[in-house]
Amino acid sequence: MKMSWKCLVRKAILAGAILAGTAAVADSAVPSPAVQPAENCVSGYRQIGEYNVERLNQILTGERAAFSSFAVEFPKATNAVTLYKVVYDTVVPEDGNRPVKASGLIAVPQVEAQNLPVLFYQHGTVFSRDEVPSDIEKSAETRLAVAAFAARGYIVIAADYLGKGVSDEPEAWLVKESSAQVCVDLLAASRNVLADLKKKPAELFLSGWSQGTFTAAAFLERLENTGVPVRAAAFASAPNDIYLCVNRWIHVPSTLDVNWLTGAAALLIHSYENYYKLPGLAAAAIKPQYQQTARDLYLNRITWETAEKTLPFHVQDFLQPEFIARNSPAASLLFRQMQANRVYNWRFKTPTFYYYGDIDEVVTPYMVQLPVEYQKALRGTLPVAVAAGEKANHRGTFLFGLADQQKRFDAMLTRKR
User: What pLDDT, in 10s, does the model give residues 226-246?
Assistant: First the structure.
């Protein structure tokens, strides 16, 4: 049942105080402008529906099988879930903290307990504006995350990202600071919504898949830098090094590749042109016959099903030869920015889990495991690399990771349920 909007307005709070019940940040700790949540962060929220136990179990069985044939089992749902759409204020760090609107989902377990653990889930790449958490019936992965966690007592929070949901902005695909910022401000907004719903967030867990692992890691770095405790974070099919990942697509095509990697390259190039102020990047990078289709896809004017009829299968055939050879200033600027946007090169405090599949179409096992040796060298909290198996493709790795995270996170809860 859809209900009317309920408005909540508040003053900005320090990122360190986002979660009630977490360790407080010292009074002298003042976050940078990019970290501080925007003023009047919550514009409003409304109930958009609920899933009963029967529907949640159907998501974990029939809908899960339709999503992927990868064999995995989830425990049955133990409670129903109420779904809320949140529209909130955030800022664009790459554009002088310009204020904008964004949206997301909060899924709240229908249980008597008030203090509940939180899973903040970051979704993977989608080629439309509405296949996002706040439009959950169009987002199979979000339904699975909700059925795996909210149906067993976790509050699930998920951002739509800039350029998706209610956002009128261009998409910020793998744009580091904006990706983190929408999560910082949604977490702050969620605190107010949950207080209104008489729920108190307890331990915070992060999870992401594919593009969502980039967002989750950028978010984790922000939280750690401002003293917000994160109990654990999990990343399925993580393109930890964008420079390495994209160059693999260009120079080392694989029989495992899927055609939508070309679409991903279109999102990356246009996002970086827009957010990093690189005018002419798309024209310099993309072959002329594909430029209009690539731009229309980026702006959500056409679906992937329409775009794939025009765009080539391989990324190397999508890009201009001079650009691939880096014989242009635009290429140098793009590749430099990708190198700057690695999301594992700080000393971890949080326990982390990285899931990889042997036949993943997007990232290789080596890419996913990069943080392990890096943190070993820094003596950070050592990540755990988890193999999803020889039959795990991109979606299979997501499913394996979701089921495995459920067990690991449950074991880490302060109050066992």
Answer: 999 999 999 999 999 999 999
Does position 30 have pLDDT exceeding 50, yes or no?
A: no
Neighbours of 7 (CB within 10 A): 11
Which of these, 86, 392, 391, lies nearest to 209 by C-alpha position?
A: 392
Beta bridge partners of 109: 81
CA angle 226, 353, 58 (to 5 degrees): 110
Give Cα 388 to chain centroid, integer Å: 20
Contact 121, 208 (CB under 8 A): yes
d(CA 206, CA 328): 39
The residue to which tokens 């695909």 are assigned: 173
Among the listed residues 368, 362, 332, 367, the one whose alpha carbon sits nearest the alpha carbon of residue 253: 362
Rounded to the nearest 5°, which phi and psi values hold at 2? -85, 135
Residue 321 CB partners (closer than 8 Å, separation 6+): none
How many CA atoms, within 13 angstroms, populate the side-chain half-sphere of residue 378? 16
Contact 171, 164 (CB under 8 A): yes
Tokens of 233: 């974070």
| Phi (first) and psi of residue 396, to 5 degrees | -65, -40
**Phi, psi (deg, nearest 5) at residue 392:** -90, 110
For 179-214, the pLDDT digits (tens) are: 999 999 999 999 999 999 999 999 999 999 999 999
Report the C-alpha gap between 165 and 103 in whole angstroms.
6
